[in-house]
Amino acid sequence: MGVLARDDMHIITTNGGREKLDFVFGCAYDQQGQLLASPAKTDGILGLSSAGISLPSQLANQGIISNVFGHCITRDPNGGGYMFLGDDYVPRWGMTSTPIRSAPDNLFHTEAQKVYYGDQQLSMRGASGNSVQVIFDSGSSYTYLPDEIYKNLIAAIKYAYPNFVQDSSDRTLPLCLATDFPVRYLEDVKQLFKPLNLHFGKRWFVMPRTFTILPDDYLIISDKGNVCLGFLNGKDIDHGSTVIVGDNALRGKLVVYDNQQRQIGWTNSDCTKPQTQKGFPFFL
């Protein structure tokens, strides 16, 4: 619960100019729930949805920026990265993009045609065939999978490594596996696991549009030396038929949310600092 408040916002643009705008923002006073066990959806700090009252939309309506924002979260365990408003730091080439689908909740919905673990397709039965709804949500710490896809993924991992046994006493994440050899670092086991790929069809019917989640992103080594999976079952948060791409899957990528062109784009990046691109590659 909360209220809407109005105040002045002072911003510095990329060219050093200063702007003052009348800004409406949400002020919550009754936040409930905790990670992995929340009775209600909790909100982020900034309003970054596609709604008209979101921060980028308000800035765009006043002619300060294009209705675009993006973020780049480093893979460095010590943290780092950046976020930007407007399109100054959007790459002119090299990005993969997929359309944003309209939804009443104003979240960033897309649709993946297929989901693969390595070269194994994780099927999901339903009226829409194997396609699955996808929400990009950097406010979610982990990535949630539809119930059927999640169970198929776990089955594939356990089939490949039957000597890995679930350690129910390890509460780091819902699924933590005890290996049959000592594990101290992610490098000890990541080569045994495969990337999870979301396929969003093809661009110009030729170029595949794929969002790849590497083992580096979804595996965690617990204090007990177990291998814990950073994929969770969406059924536990009432999203049993939707992929929610969370923070752990967005690391090492520049992700752009374009409310004007109604598309989400991404490309690999070290996320050290934002860069502008002033020209075009010679092959265009």
TrEMBL record:
It holds the Pfam family TAXi_C. Residues 1-267 form the Peptidase A1 domain. GO terms for molecular function: aspartic-type endopeptidase activity. One of its GO terms (biological process) is proteolysis. InterPro entries: Aspartic_peptidase_A1 (IPR001461), Aspartic_peptidase_AS (IPR001969), PEPTIDASE_A1 (IPR033121), Peptidase_aspartic_dom_sf (IPR021109), TAXi_C (IPR032799), TAXi_N (IPR032861). It comes from the Eukaryota. Belongs to the peptidase A1 family. PANTHER family: ASPARTYL PROTEASES (PTHR13683), OS02G0730700 PROTEIN (PTHR13683:SF900). This is Peptidase A1 domain-containing protein. It comes from Oryza barthii.
